[in-house]
Structure formats: C-alpha cells, structure tokens
Input
Amino acid sequence: MRKLIAAMSLALLLAGCGEEAQWEANPEPYGGIEVLAKIKEAKMSGATELTLDSNEITDLSPLKELTNLEWLWIHDNEITDLSPLKGVTNLKMLGLSDNKITDISPLAVLTELKGLGLRYNEITDLSPLKGLTKLESLYLSGNQITDLSPLKGLTNLKVLELWDNPISEDQKAMLKKALPKCRIVF
Output
C-alpha cells in the first residue's frame, strides 16, 4: 500500500499537479483524507469556522489559504510547526492546546486574535505574544513558562490561565501588578 501511495505521489509531482493533489496522495500528516475534505470544503465555501480536534495532524500546510477563518480549533493533534498559520490573519479565536508546539513565533502576525489556547504544549518563550494586544483570553497552562514579562502589555486580557508552569512568585507578583483587571489563575 505504501508503495502504491509513493508511486501515486511521484506521478502527481511529475504531472505538475498542485499542492492539493500532493496532499491527497499522502494525507496522513494532514489528519487523513476526511480532514482534507473538510479543509477543502471550508476553502470552497469561504468558511469562517473550522474544528479539526483529535485527528493526529502533524502538518498545517493545507490551512494556509483559509484566509476567511476567524475561529480555528485544532486541539489534541501532533502539531509542532505553526508557520502555515501566518497567512490566516483574520483569526480571532485559535485553539492549539494539547499539541507539541515549542515555537509560537508564527503567531506574532495574528494581531486580530481575541482568544488563544495553548495549554499543554512545550512552550517556554512568550515574546511572540507581545504584540497581540487585542487578546482577551489566553490559556497557557501546562507548558514550561518562567518569564511572564512579554504579557505585561496585554492590557485587554480578562482571563489568563498559567497553572502548571514553573513560575516564580516574583513573576506572579509582577504580572498581577501589570494586569490588575485580569483574572489570572496560577
């Protein structure tokens, strides 16, 4: 079966078919053919919401052209690379909890975000979130975060979850002082 898929992939490449055909020839990294069909339908309809939770997705490349998306939920997958989301700049709500994310720098351009879920990943550096000043809710529990200073300027935050992180008491006090109107849960 793998040889057949590999042969089909090669044939599509040689025939000059686009990325979409290549994804369909090897759908596993994208969550399987059903997930690709859901993404294709979202693209064709101009959908503003998409949920792809629990699909063993490792590659977000098929999402890069879904520029109408405002809500995207892709919790509980195997995602490490967020760079395909750079072009999905209309996102207002993004759920990426329970993945394998370490680098959140591609999220820095998603300045329309109001809600962001990144629970239970492997994140240490929050500096890419510094410019996401429209954020109202941010969920960062279960990571390896120690420095909270990048969050000081996010004054629109109403809810911030940070439990299950190795955060010092000094960092907690600093953030409480910087964001007095935010409900922070350590």
